[in-house]
Amino acid sequence: MRVPEPLTFDKWSTFNVPYLEQLRKWALMSGDYSLVCRSNIALDLYPPTATSMCAFSFTAPATSNGLTFLLSGQADIGPDNKIIAEGEIGPQAMQQRARYTIETVSETLKKLGFSWEDTTRVALFHARDIPELWGPALLGTIGEPIRRGVLVYRARPPIAGGEVELEARAIRRDLVATIL
User: Highest taxon of the source (predicted)?
Assistant: First the structure.
């Protein structure tokens, strides 16, 4: 999902109301939790004029075995809705924000019985410089998968004040269609 600009927490909650209502109708909610993965970002360059869908994932029957999963994007926002290093954009703050997203995605992978080695694609969204991003203390911690590359987008999370978002997935097939 692409939004024209980051929203306040209140506007983000309002934005999600019809989306969550539709997921409930489709029985894609478990209590208050969505069973659908979604990465939402605000592009820094050439943002859309209206909220739009950029891509979607789906499952299909397969005749061969293979691991597939998709994690929703993890922003630099803690579970208590507290923005990591809120109001700070200096080098150490940006490293702290990136570290938080990397560690949180690592923990989620582990809880699901996966590791970075299982991923086939990692995507990072940020608009400000993150010193030593590719070093051993930040993206270097994901290990071997960094050789496959990391997609980097000049974008921010959809919540105002957020600066970094990270997602990971394992997919067998990636289809790209251009819609004019």
Answer: Bacteria
